[in-house]
Amino acid sequence: MFKYTLFTFLKLPSVFWTGIRTTKVDSECCEVSVKHRWINQNPFKSMFWAVQGMAAELTTGTLVMNAIRDSNRKVSMLVLNNKANFSKKATGRITFSCTQGAEISVLMNELIKTETPKTIWMESVGIDEAGDVVSRFNFEWTLNIKK
Fold this sequence. Notes:
Layout: H1 2-11, H2 13-17, E1 21-25, E2 30-35, H3 49-71, E3 75-86, E4 93-98, H4 101-114, E5 118-127, E6 133-145
Antiparallel strand pairs: 1-2, 2-4, 3-6, 4-5, 5-6
C-alpha cells in the first residue's frame, strides 16, 4: 500500500493530508479508509462531504488507472458527472469501497477493440465502524484512447 500512499502524497496532496489511505486493491475491488478528525471536519462535528467525495473517487479512479496500466495503452480518463447521497453523519472511521473491477476490465477491452470513447458509472459506498452506510457516490468516467 506504500506506493498508493506515495502517489497521493505526490499527485493528490489533499487526499494525503486529509488522512485518506488505500487499504486494499486487487483486480475486483479498491478500498480506502479515512478517520474523522480536525483536518477533515465540518462545523457539524462530522466529516466534510468533500473528503468523503475524494475517498470515494479514489476507489473508482484507482480501478480505472489499474485497468489502463494493465492494458499497456495510452488512455485518457476523466470524470464527466457525479452523484452523491448522504444517509448518516460520518464520524469515526469510514471505509469506502468500489467492487466494479471486472466491469472496468470488460469496458477497457471494448475500448481497445473499438477505439471509440466509452463511459461507465462506478459506485463507491462509505460504511462506518458500526457497518452503517453513511454515503454513496457515483462517478461517470469517460475513457478514450490517446492518438
